[in-house]
Amino acid sequence: MSEGHNVEAAHQLSERHDADPSPGRSIEILEIFEVVLLAIVAVATAWSGYQAAQWDGHQAFEYGTASRLHAQANQVATLGGQQRLLDVSTFNTWIQAHEEGNDTLADLYVKRFSPEYLVAFKAWLKTHPFTNPNAPAGPIFMPEYHNAKTELAAKLDEHGSEAFDEGTEARDNADRYVRQTVLLATALFLIAIAQRFRVRGVRIAAGILAVVLMLYAVAGVVSLPRL
């Protein structure tokens, strides 16, 4: 082979060698970009899954609290009803003793009234119920009458409803985090699939799609409440 041919061949090899690094650098940059995306998506996915688990736990706690408060409210309401029934029954026997003129027995029944009922009873007596036709029918119809247990039951029931609503909200937050986790997992899948493509254009297109999906999912995660 002549020297001219050798020089020409060496020149062609040199041109090929100089042309190769450009695509190589592009692939390296693309791979670095994909690794960064994988790291971001992995961290965001882990965080989203963690928050979903946290909200699930919060939901269970609030639902348990709601059940406990409602059960306590039922128990206290039952005691309050029994206390009211006892007061009314005692009042009826007081009426009978009073009508019979047995003041000693009547005073004994008065001492058996609950503190709340006794306040209303004294206020009721001031209305002159035995001579005033417009007087309330009994102490329980007086504004002064309050049943502490019944009022406590109402408060417990209200707190139980609030806890249940918080549990429902926690469940919704957990579901939203799960949806974001699915989106992040899809982005992770697209990035992994993109690395399998040899055609650079297809690989870049898949990467762009993964980036858009990742940004949407990460924005959703950031906007959600956290525990």
Largest sheet: number of strands, sense, barrel closure: none
Number of domains: 1
Low-confidence stretches: 1-21
Distance between the termini: 78 Å
Please tally the β strands and state the result: 0
Order of helices and strands: HHHHHH
Given helix and strand content, the structural type is: mainly alpha
Helix content: over 70%
Characteristic key phrases:
227 residues; mainly alpha; rod-shaped; disordered N terminus
Explain what this protein looks like in three dimensions.
With 227 residues, the chain is mostly helical. The chain has one domain. 82% of the residues lie in helices and 0% in strands. The protein contains six helices and no strands. The relative contact order is 0.14.
Short description:
By secondary structure, the protein is mainly α. Helices cover 82% and strands 0% of the residues.
Write the layout of secondary structure elements.
Blueprint: H1 3-19, H2 21-99, H3 103-111, H4 115-125, H5 148-194, H6 200-223
Helix pairs in contact: 2-3, 2-5, 2-6, 5-6
